[in-house]
Amino acid sequence: MSERVAKSEVVVIFGGRSSEYDVSAASAASVVTHLDRARYEVVPLRITPEGEWAVGDRAPAGQYSAQDLIRLTPAPGAPVRHTVADALHAMASADVVLPVLHGPYGEDGLLQGFLETTDIPYVGSRVLACSTGMDKDVTKRLLAAAGLPVAASVVLTGTESSVSPQDRERLGLPVFVKPATAGSSMGVSKVVDWDELPKAIAVARELDTKVLVEEAVVGREIDVALLEFPDGQVKAGPALEISVGADRTFFDHTAKYADHTTRFDIPAKLEEDDAERLRALALNVFTTLDCRGLLRVDFFLRESGELVVNEINTFPGMTAASQFPQVWQVGGLDYSALLDVLIETALAGRPAEATAPPVPTAAG
Predict the structure, then answer these.
(1) What is the per-residue pLDDT across 221-233, written as a single tens digit (0 to 9) for each?
(2) In a domain? residue 83
(3) Among residues 40, 142, 248, 267, which one has the fewest Cβ atoms lying within 10 Å of its Cβ?
(4) Is the separation of the CB atoms in 43 and 11 below 8 Å?
(5) Same domain, residue pair 181 and 208
(6) Whole-angstrom Cα distance, residue 276 to residue 281?
(7) Looking at residue 271, which CATH number applies to its domain?
């Protein structure tokens, strides 16, 4: 008779107090759907927009929507866990926590710090990488200090609502205005006339008091997904190129989540030299920011061949239609296998090999 293999218990945390609550719930629904129940017991844990913690019962195998997960947390008849102290027991008894949280109060190092303090294993980058990676300004400063190419920008804090004539000349038009710590392109505006700037800043300030005014880089938009394996190797999946519909001027929130004309080409049609430079630069970003587990690096490739790091995402969107799972599907890992790697790497607890070159998949 075959020996029964003990299952690992995985707590999937989702929701949160950020503007990306709905995106997080959608990502978590895909994660819970694709976790292999032959290997894992899955417990959903929702942080409400008000900051309450609701622990659900174990989720059996099945197809889940975001609303399904919300109904499960708490499960019918179960008491609501109103504080992190109540939820701590569920997390502490698990083998690993999978924090499927996007934006502040979850992707920014606050939750990771708590998990570190309580010695609970979790998927993804540690406190420093999460906190610096969440702030676009800090990310750009660190990458620039390491000699990596980033777009020119101006940071506005406090009540600042304009940029100097010198900076206007340096940045040119158009510019993009974005909150420093929001994701999913929320609060981002394209400004084609300086008279539009105050309104764009006001939109960004609805999400963050710190605002970036950034030059518009003309070029192809290419993403590289990096994945750390349990042995410490970091591999780059095949590059992904984003193409938006003719009625959109950039890859905004609607284009990401609601516009069926948005297209992802995987692998991107690139010269091998460009593909190799993208992989090498993406790995450099990974090691410069001291990331762990996974990272998506978004680039612009100018016509001149120059690469520019646009943004990074320490926990990218994880719906089945999101860039990160799609890249690895083409790269040879289906969604369930991708989750296996993330969990096994978290449990291995090994640091990434900072000096190792990225290992491209066959499709890369």
Answers:
(1) 999 999 999 999 9
(2) yes
(3) 248
(4) yes
(5) yes
(6) 9
(7) 3.30.470.20
Q: Is the pLDDT of residue 70 over 70?
A: yes
Q: Are residues 85 and 70 in the same domain?
A: yes
Q: What's the CATH number where 170 sits?
A: 3.30.1490.20
Give the separation between CA 115 and CA 217, rounded to whole angstroms. Answer: 38
pLDDT in tens, 196-250: 999 999 999 999 999 999 999 999 999 999 999 999 999 999 999 999 755 545 4
Indicate the number of domains in the chain.
Answer: 3
Name residue 328's amino acid: W
Tokens of 248: 């959109």
Can you read off the two tokens belonging to residue 80?
A: 């609501």
Q: Which pLDDT score, from 0 to 100, does residue 186 have?
A: 84
Residue type, position 296, single letter: R
**Residue 354 located in a structural domain:** no
Per-residue confidence (pLDDT) for residue 150, from 0 to 100:
98
Structural domain includes residue 254 = yes
Phi and psi at 303, nearest 5°, equal -60, -30
Gap between the Cα atoms of 188 and 208, Å rounded: 11
How many angstroms separate the Cα of 233 from the Cα of each of 11, 21, 226, 292, 355?
A: 25, 32, 10, 11, 10
Q: Per-residue DSSP letters for 256-297? A: HHT-TT-EEESS----HHHHHHHHHHHHHHHHHTT--SEEEE
Domain membership of residue 158 as a residue range: 152-215
> Do residues 309 and 81 touch, judged by C-beta distance below 8 A?
no
Cβ pair 314, 124 in contact under 8 A: yes
- Under 8 Å between Cβ of 106 and 27: no
The pair of structure tokens assigned to 325 is 């799972």
Write out pLDDT tens, residues 77-94.
777 767 788 899 999 999
CB neighbours of residue 201 within 10 Å: 21
